[in-house]
């Protein structure tokens, strides 16, 4: 229960800070500010509750870690549920804030939902989400490996998420996290948010699976057996 509560809280803060920056302050802080908000949210929550649950805050991360042999498949369903509930709760709070002004609040049409942007194609969106989720998982798995400087893992992961957002906000509004995508689609009034939601569930999961298997079978440093005396 402590682990699930930590995942709920971490995902809640990630969505509230990251999507909140986009919905409430995006016009003032731009892509760079939004990217920084997402990265900082992961950074602070990784150190706050990561020691309890591992600090996944993302179904794709949980799946990727399971594929890499670093997380138990038995615990995966409940982690995903906790992440989805945490994200949805944060989106509900954000919706209440965004619509809670005398003038009716900000425009919540897109509500920072993941929608293919501009003239980009479906192929471009899928490629973006699969590749960047792959990179994100490689960073997470590598930074938390026994051979790594684990004290700096939160910083590496947070900075990776900042860079990912800087690249992909103009293409997909950046998912790499199905929980974040689902939560925003629930409240967005733009029908494209729900119609395109499948992209932002399938692509991040696919990228995570590829990363987990790549690390496990091609990149993991195996401990050398101790020589017999």
Keywords:
single chain, 229 residues, mainly alpha, 71% helix
Describe, in plain words, how this protein is organized in 3D.
With 229 residues, this protein is mainly alpha-helical. It is built from 8 helices and no strands. α1 packs across α5, α3 (76-98) packs parallel to α6 and α6 (178-187) packs antiparallel against α8 (199-219). The radius of gyration is 18 Å and the shape is globular. The termini are far apart. The model has no long low-confidence stretch (mean pLDDT 92).
| Number of E strands | 0
End-to-end Cα distance, whole Å, is 45 Å
CA radius of gyration is: 18 Å
Low-confidence stretches: none
Average pLDDT reading: 92
Shape call = globular
Please report which band the strand proportion falls in: under 5%, 5-15%, 15-25%, 25-35%, 35-45% or over 45%: under 5%
The helix-and-strand class reads mainly alpha
> How many individual helices?
8
Residues in helix, %: over 70%
The topology string of helices and strands comes to HHHHHHHH
How does the major sheet shape up? none
């Amino acid at each position: 229960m402590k682990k699930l509560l930590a995942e709920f809280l971490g995902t809640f803060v990630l969505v509230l800070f990251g999507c909140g920056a986009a919905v409430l302050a995006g016009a003032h802080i731009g892509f760079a500010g939004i990217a920084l908000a997402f990265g900082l949210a992961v950074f602070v929550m990784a150190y706050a509750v990561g020691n309890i649950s591992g600090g996944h805050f993302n179904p794709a991360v949980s799946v990727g870690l399971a594929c890499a042999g670093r997380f138990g498949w038995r615990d995966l369903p409940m982690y995903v549920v906790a992440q989805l509930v945490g994200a949805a709760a944060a989106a509900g709070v954000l919706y209440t804030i965004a619509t809670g002004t005398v003038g009716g609040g900000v425009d919540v049409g897109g509500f920072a939902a993941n929608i293919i942007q501009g003239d980009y194609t479906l192929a471009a969106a899928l490629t973006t989400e699969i590749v960047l989720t792959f990179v994100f998982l490689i960073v997470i798995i590598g930074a938390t490996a026994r051979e790594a400087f684990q004290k700096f893992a939160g910083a590496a992961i947070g900075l990776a998420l900042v860079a990912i957002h800087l690249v992909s906000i103009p293409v997909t509004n950046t998912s790499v996290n199905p929980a974040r995508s689902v939560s925003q689609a629930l409240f967005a009034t733009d029908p494209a948010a729900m119609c395109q939601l499948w992209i932002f569930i399938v692509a991040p999961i696919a990228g995570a699976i590829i990363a987990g298997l790549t690390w496990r079978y091609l990149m993991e440093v195996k401990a050398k057996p101790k020589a017999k005396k």
